[in-house]
Amino acid sequence: MIEETRIQRGFADAHRHTVAQLYDAAFGSKLALAIPEEKKRLAVLAAGFDPQFALLAWRGDVVLGVAGFKTDRGAFTGALCWRFLRAKLGLWGAVRAMLVLSLFEREAAPNQLLMDGIAVAPSARGGGLGRGLLSALAKHAAEHGYQSIRLDVIDTNPGARRLYERMGFVAWRTERFEYLQWFLGFSAATQMVLPITRSEVPQIAASTDAQYWNPLVPELTVRCLEASLSFYTAVGFRVRFQRESPPFAYLELGQAQLMLEQEHAEGWCVAELERPLGRGVNFQIEVAAIQPLLTALQNLGVQPFQAPEESWYRVSASIEEGQQEFLVQDPDGYLLRFVQPLGARRIGRA
Prior knowledge:
Layout: E1 5-9, H1 16-34, H2 38-48, E2 54-59, E3 62-71, E4 74-75, H3 82-101, E5 112-120, H4 129-143, E6 148-154, H5 158-166, E7 170-176, H6 181-184, E8 188-195, E9 219-222, H7 225-234, E10 238-243, E11 248-253, E12 256-262, E13 282-286, H8 291-300, E14 306-314, E15 319-329, E16 335-346
Parallel strand pairs: 5-6, 9-12, 13-16
Antiparallel strand pairs: 1-2, 2-3, 3-4, 3-5, 6-8, 7-8, 10-11, 11-12, 14-15, 15-16
């Protein structure tokens, strides 16, 4: 039985190191500019976090995600001040850390909750956990009288911006600092704001396992549901629910969802089915890593339609997003394209 995810405020000292590892996995490239040595950086983070300004996502006793926040009363990373850093890093280490961290410093406006970093474990990405943490944060903001949530999104992360826009965040203003791109790795950051009222908390799915329903779900007609289920469950899909007459299954992998229905006399078929089915279409499915899927397919004796390769696609005038991807046909010939995101980069940079 799959345990449900729960989201709670705060954490015990015993979990400080785990939370620091999650946070560093998400923001280590920036934090390494301030504190280059990983072991020392993790120790500083673990000691410096203020648990009362964080929401944690748990599955059982495992921490899968953290959302830090900042208000006019304090901040998740508020303890990372001069005195604290000097005690932990020494004089020159603290000078370096303060100079770099000051570039990312932002102040919370009155009646506003400011995001102080959100991080999800690699094994839990793509399952709506970040969405759930933001939903819980919106609820917390409404319950405590805050009027809005604010966050910053950098220009090299257009995927995150699209997610925030779908959740109701609105771009407020963009700060540009091209002169620091060589150092920071990005040249602009956009402030985005989500209005909050007590009567209308954003309806973002907080339960990442059972309540998220994708608004676009393909239904594939298959010749043998049992054979199809053997294939899809082997590559990581789980069955949310299943019916016997006609044979039907609703599948999900992270936030990707599919419906499978076995061919029957009253099915919605506009012409006679001939294999391979689904000619002219492929279904892109985002996963945290493609290698486990390739191993599972090898164990099934299934060869990819197209071997893994790295691809980069233009998403704006100056940004492209990369992914490792491969294609494989399911038992009926439907073409599936599994992709592992590689992040974004400026066009022209390797």
